[in-house]
Design a protein that fits this description.
Length: about 150
């Protein structure tokens, strides 16, 4: 009986360990994206993305109407490359990750600073796909606001 209990405990611990290792692997491209932004290294950011990755923002008009704006990652990468290192500083205040097989979702509250000055805050929602070369970002959608930033 003790042997069976010990075996069950070891299996449970191995699953927990694998889950934590996989979560750490999902974090890598996200952290690399923000590091690349801060360094103004568009090539570093590009390595984190799947071909045809999507970048979207939820936009609230002054009228209160909500829409989704789609941006080109090509344009995003060009803007990163034109920035001075340190200009683009997105600071995460946490990261919640959910994984099912080769699909992961990450929820990352953030504050964004441009040239050292607070610009806005919100949440990024990442969709990532596990590829032969590791986890890659399929899409990012974010919210942006200047008030009620924690």
């Amino acid at each position: 009986m003790k042997s069976l209990l010990l075996l069950c405990l070891l299996l449970l611990l191995s699953f927990v360990g694998l889950s934590q290792t996989e979560e750490a692997a999902v974090k890598i491209p996200i952290q690399q994206l923000f590091e690349g932004m801060k360094k103004s290294d568009s090539a570093m950011v590009h390595q984190t993305l799947l071909v045809n990755a999507r970048l979207e923002s939820i936009v609230k008009a002054k009228s209160g109407d909500i829409s989704v704006r789609s941006d080109s990652f090509d344009g995003f990468l060009k803007s990163i490359g034109k920035a001075t290192p340190g200009d683009l500083d997105e600071r995460l205040s946490g990261m919640q990750i959910r994984i099912d097989g080769d699909l992961a979702t990450a929820w990352t509250p953030y504050k964004f600073y441009y040239k050292g000055n607070f610009s806005h805050c919100g949440v990024n929602a990442f969709q990532l796909i596990k590829t032969a070369s590791g986890w890659k970002i399929l899409s990012i959608i974010d919210t942006r606001r200047k008030e009620t930033c924690e």
